[in-house]
């Protein structure tokens, strides 16, 4: 694989398949079995602990009524016996599942620890060999080769240990992700509200990763103390009690390191909270980006993100200060300890002579000590961190709920009947359906459903898959049944317009379908999955009245496909009520009345009253004449003065649908269609290949001068370290010349001075480096954020949100935390390897001969490794995104998945995605092992040559120099190994900069404000809108959506826009906001060309109530007025006019009512009302309602319409509506009819004509007033 990767960049198909024993199907059940046992044990423990409470029976004759006083002793007994019940420990189950395999790795570690101490002993023999002039040369050579072999053996054993650890880590991650995924599918809705999708995804990505990283160092918990004890033993042998001085310094350094670790841990927790908050906010911003653009709210939210980011960077800065301290402690550690020990050793006793053997053997032992001493506090702190995770993970596995929505309901639906559930917004209709699905917490009573269930939620849940897969939902494909489902749900005409027919890929959350299409796909899914009971939560609200009638007749109604099945239909549409078997009226979570249509009318209750007011038409179909006669109730006749409707032809589909096709593909009529090559909506995430040219970008972000200064500081600190060691080697030579006593104080003094200098330099350099890194992190994040707020809407329609979130979470995390430490380690190891070479060459110049070939091999191995490892890293990060996007998709659709019983299939999909990801991770581990063995081999060669040349030149060398060069050589293995590691880490981490850069440079929309074109503050004063020869398309290379549209609307007019679902009604409104830029022609508002002014100047002067109500988590007040422009009085006024004041004033928090993520704690109708309140607050000259009242019952709709009539009386209002009564009383008398989206203008005719066939439309002079609907199939006039 490495050779393949070296020749060409690796691709997913080149990877090996995963070992069966590492795959999800083996690993996850193992953990879940242990976890179940753990829970059972905890529960049985709990039962025992509660039994103790009642152990003592009341003595005979004592009154046992409530409040009978217990004797004080008895109370004490009870208290003392009450044990706290044991909580199931997740950690314990992990250990049971994966411990045994891990122990094999531990055994290897033990061996390696013991072998580590052989080399210092050999070094001491070698130095004494150079002293004895008459020792046989073969002994020297033997020693040199022995050193080489022990080092080599150590290498092999160490990497065996690592292999075991990493594989355990990998299995841990697989198991944890699998467990969380399975849990998230069965977690209750109430529990879902306690933790957002963002938090659970974070748990999956970050915390699972933590467990994985920990396993590699876990053995240090016992191995570090062992190494410390052994090292101290050998030091005592060497230097006697003077060692205690060194030990004292070490012991003093431990609390310092521990304190630093504790503080760092605290900062990490704090930073995690900010990061969680920032990702959560970003997630919402990206989900609601369209709304932010329409309201011109980007700045307010940008400020919010930057505020959190600033706090995050402040914590990072504190962490960096601590980091610099600990780096200093760790670097100058060897020197300080050595200094103390040697100084004490020489001064305690005149006879103690510090010779080369003692000094350098001790030095190499101190070097061995350095690693465990530094690692121990780190490992302990990360064990603590994983052991008591931010109370995320066990909660997720234990989740718990409460809140009452539906009260004392008694309901029996006979098999095969159709029950309609009606009621106001927020009265618990959807909650009833959720209760039937078992999604609500049941406080009392019981529910039983006979047979299988199919469920259509109020907000359709669409997967990122093909349209066909969305409908089949895992069932086998049956052409005939499938076609009839499409037919019944009126989806056939839509397929003709989609670029790849039913094999078109649907984006995340169904982004490239219109609201009505999503709802119909959701319905078709229910229809195809034949069930016994159908729960339909308001499936007709998102489609227009025409399609609603079609669906009711062909699917839901008494004549529909579902006749004979049990159907519960939540609806706001009154026209269908006469045809249902039973109607249930809900008020505030209770059933107020129930019965058939006729019965309820006769009861003359609230419902009958409601019907009389709102029943718009009782439709009588006269089969004989084939005409449709409509009777209107009196209330409406008066309002039919004059009407103005924009009507779009339906077969010319909604622009959104064709947003995705490169050219319009006509579907061939025959059943076995040859599907055109589908242009994928969501392009695969690109992985850059080849060398990263990003280093320069990063250096620029840090600051070029600062970068040079940092390198200079590192050079100085290495020089100080070399100086100190050369001084030591001079000092040991004093022993040979018997001039020890004279200059002890001078020797010690200079040695100390050099040590202190080095420490200070280390601290300063780490400091500067950290500052540079944080500066770069700030700049890169700001550029990314700024660009994303300026990116046009089309980018978000074609890019999965997960991909953008990944940039903000994973990649920014790398730039914040991983990259700085990698750079620090890289510079450290680079300069230490360099200084090693300099020292060895200085002491044995002949060594220079070997440097060239060794360097060549080293560079080759490193290039060879990095080429493969970089691609593996990239593949790993690309296969990681789908795990999380699939996961968040699952969490949002969990109720649908459960209703259809597709639990196992989704678990399988998730497992496959995790396995795919581990497939590119595993070769990465193996590659690291491969590299480690090769590089350490080179290091071992350096030891061999340094020793050999010392043996060869022993007559010319003094023992001090031999000790110096060989002890340095023993150190080099580690530096070299780390250096390659760091180089490759640096290359793979710098990819984050590249990815962030890539998204900081995407194309941006027009400027928010154009200084010299600013409209006057009171613009638009009249609200006159003109389209002149206007054309628009969704993206480059697509067909026009509107062609040469010319239309003029006088200020203050109310315009109705109707047409079949997907006829491009919303597209027209998007043009006013310039979410779509003109392809030709222009729009002017009050004579100002909107294409010339800034986007914020334009958007802040228009108001839209969008089709899908979007709320952000935060207070209700923030949702209404993020810039805090208005006072509380105005906000309450807006709530009153939008009929929310009763609901809000009943909440204890009033305006500070917390909205959960996406406004989940409000019903869809209430969310729509919040959007209306926003519009009332802004009160601009031009208002656009995009099917704003689809999710609202007729009564509330009526109230809203009257609010709009009174409050926006002098404003220009464009309304897109499915319900005719919504637009019955709109002004003006022209019909706009679009054919192939050209709009032509017609007057209205006086009498009601009915055409059955599409034909040319006569231009009739304006008469009394009626509406005409153009549809591809028929004309029908509804009128007086």
UniProtKB/TrEMBL annotation:
CC terms in the record's Gene Ontology section = plasma membrane
* Region Disordered, residue ranges: 42-70
- Record's catalysed reaction(s): 17beta-estradiol 17-O-(beta-D-glucuronate)(in) + ATP + H2O = 17beta-estradiol 17-O-(beta-D-glucuronate)(out) + ADP + phosphate + H(+); ATP + H2O + xenobioticSide 1 = ADP + phosphate + xenobioticSide 2; leukotriene C4(in) + ATP + H2O = leukotriene C4(out) + ADP + phosphate + H(+)
Where the protein is mainly located, per its record? membrane
Give residue ranges for domain ABC transmembrane type-1.
Answer: 103-385, 708-988
Q: Which UniProt keywords apply?
A: ATP-binding, Cell membrane, Lipid transport, Membrane, Nucleotide-binding, Repeat, Translocase, Transmembrane, Transmembrane helix, Transport
Matches recorded under PROSITE patterns: ABC_TM1F (PS50929), ABC_TRANSPORTER_1 (PS00211), ABC_TRANSPORTER_2 (PS50893)
Span-the-membrane segments of this chain are: 97-118, 138-158, 217-236, 242-262, 319-347, 701-728, 748-770, 837-861, 937-954, 960-980
Residues covered by the ABC transporter domain:
391-613, 1025-1261
Annotated GO biological processes are: lipid transport
Membrane topology note: Multi-pass membrane protein
Indicate yes or no for the key word Disulfide bond.
Answer: no
Gene Ontology MF term list: ABC-type xenobiotic transporter activity; ATP binding; ATP hydrolysis activity
- Name the Gene3D superfamilies for this protein: ABC transporter type 1, transmembrane domain, P-loop containing nucleotide triphosphate hydrolases
- Give the protein family: Belongs to the ABC transporter superfamily. ABCC family. Conjugate transporter (TC 3.A.1.208) subfamily.
Task: Output this protein's name.
Answer: Multidrug resistance-associated protein 3
**Species whose genome carries this gene:** Oncorhynchus mykiss (Rainbow trout)
